[in-house]
Amino acid sequence: MSDEKGFPKFSSSQRTGAVGLTVVTKLVETELKWIFKPNHQENDFGIDGYVEIVREDGAVLGRSFALQIKTGKSHVAKTSEQGFLLYGELKHLNYFVNSPVPVALVWVDEAENRAWWVHVTPHAVRMTEKGWSILIPINNRFDSSSSKILAELAGSTDDYIPLLERLSMIRQAACQSGGVLFLVTKEEVNSGDVSRLRDFFRMFESAPDILPHIRGKFLLAVHGWDDDPREIYEIPKVRAWFAKAEKSVLGWSYYLDLDSPYSTFRAFYACTCRITRRETSDDGTRQMLYFSKKERKAFIIRHFRWLNHFTKKHQISLSVNKEISDAMAKIVVGFSAR
Predict the structure, then answer these.
(1) Entry pTM
(2) Which of 103, 138, 201, 211 to pair with 39, CA 20 to 30 A apart?
(3) Could you give the CA distance from residue 291 to residue 302 in angstroms, rounded to a whole number?
(4) Which residues does residue 106 pair with via DSSP β-bridges, in sequence order?
(5) Alpha carbon distance 146, 151 (integer Å)
(6) Of 153, 173, 189, which marks where a domain is finished?
(7) Burial level of 307, CB count in 10 A (0-12/13-18/19+)?
(8) What backbone phi and psi angles, to 5 degrees, belong to 286?
(9) 177 and 302 inside one domain
(10) pLDDT one-digit tens code per residue, 226-272
């Protein structure tokens, strides 16, 4: 057939690229004994594929790194005793360094069926007038000799099953119990650490279907000041901790038991609002506390706002929102210390 104009062409650059992809696939599968997942061309924005790590026992670990593959000597600007200098485009550089998955640039010598690699990081890149360059070290062979370093590049693997089982057990226990006491240590108070508290309640918020089963069940108890004659709202470090803890969980009014006379919501109120006056009740059984009107108003407004955000986010009914709002207002208006 003399006329070839009506046929698509397989260009030399496409042929070279296909050869490089074949070499890399073989090296990943036979040398490293891992899994190579090539990107489809329509989804190729500089990443040619992903390598998934496989342990010696065959376990696929959920760890991977991305590859950009350059094939042929035309991509090498300079060869030295240190390695191979390659150039790249700016659009790819930004994409690589922003990737949540580590990106390795692989250069393939198709004549020798060998490849070398480098991790693309801001520190390894040098800017040029037209783009950027990076040196691929001569010792970075893309084969079994680099398996340990490449596996480390993909990140570590954790066994989450024990943690997940523990979280499930805690959620189930909270749903089935009549109340849950969260004990805050003195060390946490002294250091201002609210991370354990925040993570504990985040565990419930991440499973919103159980929220109706744990509403109003929680109390916080601060441990370590049992012999201190002061009330907790009189201890500066405790006040500071409650002020920090208040902002760490926006659903306090939903989680806390608002009906108990020992409700932790009272502690948040007493510890985050300034006391302006104290009086003793006529029968001498209670100490009456008066708080800054400005701070009291700010306290109830922010908790109303946080409750609205919490109930809207988790599709909780307006009737429940109103019940909680009324209970919050009752605590703030009628607060007194024993």
Answers:
(1) 0.73
(2) 138
(3) 16
(4) 69, 117
(5) 8
(6) 153
(7) buried
(8) -135, 150
(9) yes
(10) 899 988 899 999 999 999 999 999 999 999 999 998 899 999 999 99
